[in-house]
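Researcher: I'm preparing a figure for a lab meeting and need a structural model of a single chain. I don't have an experimental structure, so a prediction will have to do for now. The sequence is pasted below. Please return the structure as tokens so I can convert it later.
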Amino acid sequence: MRTLLLSMGAYGSLILVLRLSGKRTLAKMNAFDLVVTVALGSTLATILLNKDVTLAQGVLALIALVLLQYAIAWLSVRYSSIERLAKAEPAVLLRDGKLVEDTLRRERVTADEVKSALRSSGLGSFELAAMVVLETDGSLSVVPKSSVGLCSAFPRDERPNGAG
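Model: Understood. Here is the structure written out token by token.
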């Protein structure tokens, strides 16, 4: 009975905290966002299953996590030094149809993972891609050569040969 009642209270509190904190809290845009998402789930489980943690303590922990994430995001928007600490830079893994071997090693990504991203994007070879980027959230973005355009969305203005 305790678990059932706590579940309703903790779940309702979590939904309320998330609604008040905004969409960014669960965005998983970078490593800190992912950590907060996992920590929220872990905290919720602790509230429900640990008899030593009261609902009030658990809700306070949820609020603290969300406030810390909000503070990091707020500071990151205003101070580039905080942004550099909190967020990774996107990394170019393939440029102009060629793998960037140093970046693959540094980011611990295999050529097979790049191939998988190409296939998922409907491309059958490296040569059809202008760029493959490891994004700050860990996902791989593929830019086909056919849609390069002005390249304003590329990391650090890294334009493929002949673009923009």
